[in-house]
Design brief:
By secondary structure, the chain is α+β, with helices and mostly antiparallel strands. It has two domains: 8-104, 2-Layer Sandwich (Phosphorylase Kinase, domain 1), CATH 3.30.200.20; 109-365, Orthogonal Bundle (Transferase(Phosphotransferase), domain 1). The protein has helices at 66-78, 110-116, 124-143, 191-194, 201-217, 229-237, 256-268, 279-303, 309-319, 359-380, and strands at residues 11-19, 23-30, 35-39, 44-47, 51-58, 87-92, 99-104, 108-109, 156-159, 161-164, 183-184, 336-337. The strands form four sheets. A five-stranded antiparallel β-sheet has the order 1-2-5-7-6, covered by helices on one side. Helix 3 (124-143) packs antiparallel against helix 8 and helix 7 (256-268) packs antiparallel against helix 8 (279-303). The protein is globular, with a radius of gyration of 23 Å.
């Protein structure tokens, strides 16, 4: 991991993959590869040789801020730890003059993994394993006294292993930490962050709760509505994504581990940040839930060798009314600057999500009443 600055001419076969809110991602071949060790006989560094990597080219980064450079140093340092994507160093495109992170190449992010598989090949066991690994990665980050600030499925990478990437990179490269704008992906952001407060370990845990629920339901949060001022207001008022409704299923006795997961998710996205568990606690509980699933699967299949536990559970989940596939055209899952309404209310928990009345509906009803009132006035005159 001793590579820091890497000349751009050390890369070849550069191919565009995708773009996010503040960067474009390319695959490339690193001709020399990372440093492996010092060879005293040849008096030179030995390298791994040609290596496939990802280049994350940062938009408008020719005038990179000192704060952002510090974030890059943190990312490189954190690359020594498991559960975190490796950052080998930094380079610069000689044409655009934009800086680029040289990252470990991982085939999929969590979002593409979940939805390209179209619900079919991701068993409940796989989902719980992914959740456990994400929890572990976030715990590692928090154990280093770092805050991710932008945790969402686009920043979680999967290719045999599950890795967290891009922590600290939720703002443009030319902005400083004193910038008062709010950046991120709205559906994954804690209500206190939407109100302009600072990112904390607890706000990361809120995002983790939203992600865990998305993995189980295979439904993006708030995908059935525009991501606008009304949604921001409703999140502060206590609106949360639908969880799996285990109490209404024919296999409810087999879903105790999912009931425990629902409880954990709801603790993570509590409106009061003080009530949220630590990432370490989430890590421990997610492991317990995975073990409960394994034990229950073994017990059920030992009783009846022809019984397919995973198939039964997965069929039940797909029938669940909590799951909705279609996404609204004005839903947005890309990081960016958020246009937030002023004077948002103090975050609160809503006791029953099924009875939540959206601010959008209330506003429409109020507008309709006003219009009717105006029409009546017209009739009077």
């Amino acid at each position: 991991m001793s590579s820091k600055w890497i000349p751009y001419n050390k890369f070849e076969n550069i191919k565009y993959i995708a773009k996010g809110g503040f960067a474009k991602v390319y695959s490339a071949e690193w001709i020399d590869g990372r440093i492996k060790r010092w060879n005293p006989l040849s008096n030179n560094w030995e390298r791994n040789g040609q290596t496939k990597i990802a280049l994350k080219v940062l938009n408008d980064s020719e005038n990179i801020s000192e704060d952002f450079l510090n974030e890059i140093k943190v990312l490189i340092k954190a690359s020594y730890y498991p559960g975190i994507v490796k950052c080998f160093g930094i380079t610069r495109d000689p044409i655009s003059l934009n800086y680029a992170l040289v990252l470990e190449y991982v085939k999929n992010d969590l979002r593409s993994y979940l939805y390209q598989n179209n619900n079919n090949s991701i068993t409940c066991g796989k989902k719980l394993n992914i959740i456990k690994r994400i929890c572990y990665g976030l715990h590692i980050i928090h154990d280093m006294e770092l805050v991710h600030k932008d945790l969402h499925p686009g920043n979680i990478l999967i290719d045999g292993v599950t890795l967290i990437s891009d922590f600290g990179f939720c703002i443009p490269t030319n902005k400083t930490s004193s910038d008062s704008n709010v950046y991120g992906v709205m559906p994954y952001m804690a209500p206190e962050i939407l109100r302009g407060e600072q990112h904390t370990l607890a706000s990361d845990v809120y995002s983790l709760g939203i992600i865990m629920n998305e993995i189980v339901t295979v439904t993006p949060p708030f995908n059935n509505q525009p991501h606008d001022h009304f949604l921001v207001l409703d999140i502060c008022r206590g609106l949360r994504p639908n969880t799996i409704r285990t109490e209404t299923t024919e296999t409810s006795n087999s879903l105790n581990f999912l009931k425990e997961l629902n409880k954990l998710i709801e603790r993570c996205w509590d409106a009061n940040s003080i009530n949220r568990p630590t990432s370490g606690e989430v890590c421990d509980i997610s492991l317990d839930i995975l073990n409960d699933y394994i034990n229950q699967k073994q017990a059920e299949e030992q009783k009846n060798p022809s019984y397919n536990f995973d198939e039964t559970i997965d069929t039940t989940l797909k029938k669940n009314p909590s799951i909705t596939i279609e996404t609204h055209s004005e839903a947005n899952y890309t990081s960016g600057i958020l246009d937030l309404p002023p004077n948002l209310p103090e975050p609160t928990n809503w006791p029953n999500q099924q009875e939540f009345i959206s601010s959008r509906i209330y506003s429409q009803d109020l507008l309709a009443k006003n219009l009717r009132s105006e029409c009546l006035e017209c009739m009077v005159y």
